[in-house]
Amino acid sequence: FTTPTEIQSKSLPVTLAGDHDLIGAAETGSGKTFAFGLPILQHLAARAPQKGKEDLGCTGLILAPTRELAIQVTDHLNRVAKFMRVKIVSIVGGMSEQKQKRLLSSRPDVVVATPGRLWELAREDQDVISRLRKISFLAIDEADRMLESGHFKDLDHILDAISLRRRDTDESSKKVSKRRTFIFSATLIQDGRLKMRLNKPMKFKGGAPTFDDLLKRLEFQDPKPVYIDVTSTSVMATSLVETQIECLHTDKDAFLYYILTRYPGRTLVFVNSIDAIRRLVPVLGLVGVKAYGLHAEMQQRMRLKNLDRFRDSPDAVLIASDVAARGLDIPNVEHVVHYQLPRTAELYVHRSGRTARGGGG
């Protein structure tokens, strides 16, 4: 990219200079990856050359809620660091466990991971935990999704294992510089509740954890983390054109075919169930529309293959569950179709955010 996006232009002066922690709110596709990734790469570029075989530990840990997003972040950072002597690896589910164990033990400079797979591999390996305690940067992307069922428990285990309190008792980690924390999401704190006491211990009141719980759990070193909010006050992107078609349930397939043929271009069709994807892909194929599926039960290899096919064809159609609604970098999506309405308004925003996106990262 040649021009920074709004979140980049506002956050990079903070993250590249000084030692502040940062909480950033920006819409999906606004360039959050480079907002937290470039400071880590700058730190690595300025790092003194490694002497002998001394293990300097892992410099940055980036956590993302889905494997596709983690792989995307890794790809973006590797492109920027193409001519740097740094090692950036992704640790995600759906890949060979043995291969990922080797990646973790290969002394990477930056680990990009989903909480579930990272904790699965690290909890029995004290050497990995020790290296992760040395991180100078902790970044969490799509932070609000970490509160969903399954994510937060693993994230909580990781945060406890790499806690600064534990680092103080780890002789190999005592020489590490101050840790900085960057947390980004598309929907953070809409009412500006940053005046809360971040140093209060986390206490669950029953039920699902809240965003306040996550913030308290993060052990910010900055007593007043910088808060940058560039989310649109109108919630939906101003460049987005919304249209509604009222029809009977039995006519949905016909209207979908009409939309796809009347308005050609790269199109994302969102549904609420895997069964709907398995039905629609062959149905559209029968009428000459080449469509690809994307859902959580697909093998990782096929998911990535279908994403590549969708990116490579200007008139491709992707039938997806909400696994694709958050964070994924699918450029030049011209149309988004809600074949089935999402269950929440927030999901509608994230689905629709697949088009009218910002550029680069």
From TrEMBL:
The organism's taxonomy opens as:
Eukaryota, Fungi, Fungi incertae sedis, Chytridiomycota, Chytridiomycota incertae sedis
Q: What InterPro entries is this protein classified in?
A: DEAD/DEAH_box_helicase_dom, Helicase_ATP-bd, Helicase_C-like, P-loop_NTPase
What this protein catalyses is:
ATP + H2O = ADP + phosphate + H(+)
GO MF annotation terms:
ATP binding; hydrolase activity; RNA binding; RNA helicase activity
Which PANTHER family does the record match to this protein? RNA HELICASE
The enzyme's first-digit EC class, named in words, is: hydrolase
Entry protein name: ATP-dependent RNA helicase
**Gene3D superfamilies per the UniProt record, alphabetical:** P-loop containing nucleotide triphosphate hydrolases (3.40.50.300)
Q: Provide the function of this protein.
A: RNA helicase.
| Record domain Helicase C-terminal: where | 251-361
* The record's note on its domains: The Q motif is unique to and characteristic of the DEAD box family of RNA helicases and controls ATP binding and hydrolysis.
> What family does this chain come from, according to its entry?
Belongs to the DEAD box helicase family.
